[in-house]
Amino acid sequence: MTLIAELRQRKVFKVGGAYLVVAWLAIQAASIAFPTFDAPPWALRVFILIVLLGFPLALVLAWVFDVTPEGVKKSASDVGNKRIYASAGALVVLALLWYYVGAPAFRAGDVDAHAIAVLPFENMSGDKNNEYFSDGISEEILNTLAQTPGLKVAARTSSFSFKGKSMDVPAIAHALKVRMVLEGSVRKQGDRVRITAQLIDASNGFHVWSQTYDRQLKDVFAIQDEIAHAITQQLQVELSDHHAENASASTQDVAAYDLYLKGLALWQKREEANLRAAEADFRAALARDPKFAKAWAGIALTKMVLPDWSVDPSTTAYPQARDAAEHALALDPNLPEPYAVLGYVAYNELRFDTGRVLFQHALTIAPSFATGYQWFGESLASAGDLEGGLRMLQRAAELDPVSEIVRGTEANILFVMGRDEESLQLTKAVLADYPNSKRQMGRMVALAAERKDNATARAMLLRSVAGRGAEQEAFANALADALDGKGDVQAIAQRVADMPHRSDANPSVVPFFPQPTMSWFLAIGRNDLAIDEFAWLSHQTPYVARMNAYSVHFDPLRCDPKFQQVVHDLGVVDPRAATVCTGKH
Predict the structure, then answer these.
(1) What band does 238 get if pLDDT is binned at 50, 70 and 90?
(2) Domain match, 84 and 181 both
(3) Which one of 234, 258, 284 terminates a domain?
(4) Tens of pLDDT along 542-554?
(5) Whole domain around residue 162: which residue ranges?
(6) Is the dihedral of CA 329, 310, 408, 411 positive or negative?
(7) C-alpha 243 chain-centroid distance
(8) Which one has a higher pLDDT value, 276 or 509?
């Protein structure tokens, strides 16, 4: 008798087929039931492994035993014993390989065990409107861990970029260059909250620690601290001295804290409408608790970035940011964000030594504060230390490798330094991750115009206006034609000059031009309009204008008296002017 015939006789095929059907149904049921009962995410993976290991066992049992009218009996075998056992063993090996190396994992020695990412906790409340709450809990824990000197903590932007994506923990850890991953869930119902958290070692997929907290909502502050302390104990590091006892509980008003979390979620999204709504939530929180330091810090953060996303000038926004930051520190001197805001303002006021100390103190409090490194880098570059600024941006990118803002700013500094090829490659990489980013498209247009790559400039201009109608498409083509010296170049240049600033952020505005426009003006020979744009930047976002003052690409403007006046008003000492303007360059 052949092996196939004996397999059929012993009903191995029927048993295997039935097992696979039942196993598939069981896995489907488990994928629904496990989250419902707040089972940790690793539990489903272990369940699937057990099901997979059961398959070769079922085949072996079907081979060895036979069901007869007299009961279950062991069958004698003429052929195939070694082959069936070998096949079962191979299936066991495959199941184990799936569990341990089935996802793009990495070996334990590849990444420091003190490198950790905090993934957004899953909202189990059954109400999508509570998403901000579960995200906020995760972010508060992340911020606490970021203050621990012995840890490298992936920034919020990068960790949260995996939200809603069906990726295994090892794959996420590999992308973020961390070994430990904290994940969990939050269920908020009435005045109670259940938080489940588990720490996973991505090198082997096993959980190192897990805990479920079922408490009253007012205890959420203590839960956050307990989780942070548990993580640091597992990783054998100590929370920073700056993290005072019950530091999360800077308010006892649960409603105020809820408003703060809403504002924090909106601030992370940037864009003008989100920032204004965030400020409203922070102020509503302060109306309930005027001594809520983190809400004051939220206002400081919002005012700090508003000139980059609106037409609110720095001359108005930065003093308001400074006032809110000082108020926050008067209530809680251990918050890192207000020091970073004050450092940024100090650099804007040309108090470089003071700004440097403030940034350094912010980063001492929170060694994994990616935004602090980003702002420090921008400030150093605006003060003329382009190399130092680039190093800070690269450090920020290590902590926040998925951030559009961090990598985009790094690409901009490279452009200012004249390292165009590096800037181009980085901008392409960011645009691949954020295909709808008008800012990255704008930089691509600037780089293409500088390189006289008008075909790429046209493609980017048309891509940036996709979906805005025929009129906008015609305008984009006219912009590209002007680079080729076609059409009424002077008329189209004036149209660009007359456009409202930040119009690229408003889908209803036609026409618009993806910023920046200075390079385009230079490419068509309208240096006067490029200087006008430079003058506007000097009031709107001085740090950008100061960086541009050092840019090798703006040498054609450097000797113009109006350009020199703007540079003087910015307080910049232009190291290139003497050489360029005496014809020695």
Answers:
(1) low
(2) no
(3) 234
(4) 999 999 899 999 9
(5) 108-234
(6) negative
(7) 24
(8) 276
